[in-house]
Amino acid sequence: MSVELESTANLEEIYTWMEQIPFSKPKKNLARDFSDGVFMAELLKRYYPRYVDIHNYIPGNSIAKKIDNWCTLNRKVLSKLDVKLGKDVINQLANSQPGVIEKILIELRAKILKDCNADRNSLYAEYEEDEKKEVVKSVLNPEEIANKTVPRHVFVRLKQELEEKNELINILHQKVSHLESLIKLKDQRITDLTSQIIKPIEQSITPRTFAASTISKLRTKI
After folding, report:
1. For the chain, what is the domain count?
2. Cα 91-30-108 angle, rounded to 5 deg
């Protein structure tokens, strides 16, 4: 396959891949869509969620804001994936230069597939080689429901996230139980204080009532 044909094939794969991703807004032009880095943050969030805090990336029209988003992505995410971008590339991306984002996506796609392939032998030992490749490639499609298996690194990541969420739920349950105990103690305290207030009042009222009754009887006799 010639370099030109291979490049065309790669681009077709990238465009097909992008069509499968449900971004936050409709896709119109790849270079402009990715220029502020938000689409890239959303894309990376799907495959490397632990690295990406989507709230750090705010859509913007100014070149300065776009560069800022890309620099944040570069520092916090891409550098950890060995896909670090140079300043010139970031400027080109922010200025929507045609063809630049496609090159980045080709490199990123290769990285994702490489991560999927890393542990596939241990996970898919019983599969034929062709079947392994199809399963690994299906990871790029987030809407793939026919695939009944996932790469090991995806499984490990999801398992870890589940454990973290379960731990958080347990902590919240403990806090709720603690607050309920405090409420019960406060209710009991309020009841005790109310009782202490009412009792003296009742005691002070009783003698007066008795005295009034005695005076009334004396007047009747007179």
Report:
1. 2
2. 75
Q: Is 25 in the same domain as 81?
A: yes
- pLDDT band for 137, please (50, 70, 90 cuts): very low
Q: List Cβ neighbours of 137 (8 Å cut-off, separation of 6 or more).
A: 113
Distance CA 34, CA 16 (A): 16
What domain range includes position 167? Answer: 153-199
Report the run of H or E that residue 142 belongs to, with start and end.
none
Q: Do 65 and 172 share a structural domain?
A: no
Tell me how crowded residue 172 is: count the other CB atoms within 10 A of its CB: 10
Alpha-carbon torsion angle 54, 56, 57, 62, nearest 10: 170
Structure confidence by residue, pLDDT tens digits, 92-105: 999 999 999 999 99
Residues 27 and 77 in one domain: yes
Cβ neighbours around 66 below 10 Å, total:
23
